[in-house]
Amino acid sequence: MLRHHHSPIFPRILNSSFGSVQHQHVHRSNHPQPQKPQFPFPPKPECDESLLLHYLSNGLHHEAQNLLQNSSEGDLHTRVVRWTSLLSSFSRHGHVPQARALFDIMPHRNLVTFNAMLSAYLGSGMLHEAFRFFRAMPEKNVVSWTAMLGGLANAGRIDDARKVFDEMPERNVVSWNTMVAALVRSGELEEARVVFEEIPFKNVVSWNAMIAGYVESGRMDEARALFEKMEFRNVVTWTSMISGYCREGDVEEAYCLFRAMPERNVVSWTALIGGFAWNGFYGEALLLFLEMVRVSDAKPNGETFVSLVYACGGLGFSWLGKQVHAQVIVNSWGVDDYDGRLRRGLVRMYSGFGLMDSARNVLEGNLKDCDDQCFNSMIDGYVRAGQLERAQELFDMVPVRRNKVASTCMIAGYLSAGQVLNAWNLFKMSDRDSIAWTTMIYGYVQNELIAEAICLFAEMMAHGASPLNSTYAVIFGAMGSIAYLDQGRQLHGMQLKTVYEYDLILENSLIAMYAKCGEIDDAYRIFSKMTYRDNISWNTMIMCLSDHGRASEALKVYENMLEFGIYPDSLTFLGVLTACAHAGLVDKGWELFIAMVDTYDIQPGLEHYISIINLLGRAGKVKDAEEFVLRLPVEPNHAIWGALIGVCGLSKTDADVARRAAKRLFELDPLNAPGHVTLCNIYAANDRNIEETCLRKEMRMKGVRKAPGCSWILVKGTVHVFSSDDKLLLTV
């Protein structure tokens, strides 16, 4: 799918090839070739060209005519050839009025002279003058008619071109090809096909023009049918088909055609390299480039390196990107970067790597010429790299380049840094689209401003901005975090009416929202209807079931995941270990823990160790849990010791294990309130009153206080919060 960022390679080559073939046919098919003179033709006219141009520019036509006559030698044909050559030279250098003046004073002219003057008008875009001159020509041949046809077609005047084509007394293959190409460019493929079928003597350019039309329109089946019918194909034909398949995302078919090509040039190689890169096959693009350098004589050009830079950025290999850039500099390929695409690609690549100094160096001295893409890449790169001040500096330095993308990047940067007010001020001044609204809503959620995020979503709807899938995903996540089930259901209903195509992120967010709100069956219903699930989908469902105590169902989902060929990750095992801990499935938990390490080669993290401690402790095996902690390959931290004290507090037994764990915990975190409270409760439960009293006294001396827990409930749209020692509910 070569849609986003890249100009097709093939059309430029097709046009140039078409032009060269057309030129050959024009001179080959109209006149019998004049016999060569017996004397060598002078390489340069004897007439002083600059002086002649001076006379013509200043209206000194008599002097110019005398200069022509006095400086011309040879027979009449030779003199006309020289004068016509001068006329063409003037027009090539943009001196069309002087060329016409020369035409008017020429003592003699032939049909080639008339055609040269007609081409001068057409080449300079003077279509009205060209058409008037064409109608006044005393004699016309197929070259004249074809030139006029091409001029009208290039100007987009297809109806006029078709009239000229219909009036032509005779046509050659170039005439037919010109008409086909004109209709293709205007998008009239059906009409182009009719003309193509009427061509009495098709050449490879005829076929290529029609195939190119189908390729550009994405009609690859019809392009392939013509391709198969061709008796002779050239490199342009093959390259056009390769580019078309790459544009449609069928890289495999493009690769098969590439391997079948009888010959390849740099455009062919670059077409497939670009096809790989733009379709996300970054490694394949680089490998194909290496093959091109190793086995072919084709020399890479600027277009090749645009694709390579994009591939390096996609792979995320900064050292490889630097090597490609070095090759561009050493071989001066950047000199041919006429449209700035290579420079933009380098800026985007370095910005993606977070190498902002390198990205800035590419633009150094050219900031005034910085286009929107470069500017946006730089702003986004600075924001992602955490260099918000540099982003602000550039944003303020080039105000003329401010656009939606750059403003949205700055808003995201402010929100990530917690600068909500700055983000809001810029958001108010910006031209806001759905992406900007979503960015602002997500930033509010990031900064735990949930109520503000919900209000902003309502404001977005009031302004007529259409929510994106990502907008709903953010809002569903916010609803789940505060368990706003009623509003979550309402938003889900709204989403069903406004978004008809689900995506993976949206469905995953819905599963998480319903699960966090306690509606595990609704979450599972959405999960079961998904057409595609990734690791996040499976892990979310496993964790949801595990958190709700439905261990057997969580393990069943895990087994289904393996049957579908999905590779479990560390979060998957955290979910199933937690499920086993809640259900007391010690043997199954150990089995899964061993499989994680031995079968899947996943290094356990802190959370996995805590899950095993909970697994053993909840099953009453507190001493086994202590032995597990002492055998850990890492130094236990306060979270590990806190978990061990926590499982001791479940049964209020094993006071000695709790005391040893507490000693280690208080060494690491002397003011850990939950640890102190749990140990006090264990002492009290085991009638160790003296130790309990001493510990409580120590807590008062150290100022250890346990923050009271709180709960909340949503009633008729109002949140009521209460804690254990409250006499009245606090309404929020």
CATH class of the domain at 605-732: Mainly Alpha
Q: In the CATH hierarchy, what is the architecture of the domain at 605-732 at level 2?
A: Alpha Horseshoe
CATH topology of the domain at 605-732: Serine Threonine Protein Phosphatase 5, Tetratricopeptide repeat
The major sheet is characterized as: 3 strands, antiparallel
Rg, Cα atoms, Å? 38 Å
Give the N-to-C terminal Cα separation.
51 Å
Structure class: mainly alpha
Going by CATH, the homologous superfamily of the domain at 605-732 would be Tetratricopeptide repeat domain
Q: Percent range for helical residues?
A: 55-70%
How many extended strands? 3
Instruction: State the helix count.
Output: 41
In words, what does this structure look like?
There is one protein chain. 69% of the residues lie in helices and 2% in strands. It is an all-alpha fold. Among the domains are: 1-29 and 173-263, Tetratricopeptide repeat domain (Serine Threonine Protein Phosphatase 5, Tetratricopeptide repeat, Alpha Horseshoe), CATH 1.25.40.10; 47-139, no CATH class; 605-732, Tetratricopeptide repeat domain (Serine Threonine Protein Phosphatase 5, Tetratricopeptide repeat, Alpha Horseshoe), CATH 1.25.40.10. A three-stranded antiparallel β-sheet has the order 1-2-3, with no helix packed on it. A hairpin with a 6-residue loop joins strand 2 (718-723) and strand 3 (730-731). Helix 13 (220-229) runs antiparallel to helix 14 (235-247) and helix 36 (606-618) packs parallel to helix 38 (638-651). The longest helix has 19 residues, at 10-28. The chain is elongated, with a radius of gyration of 38 Å. The two termini are 51 Å apart.
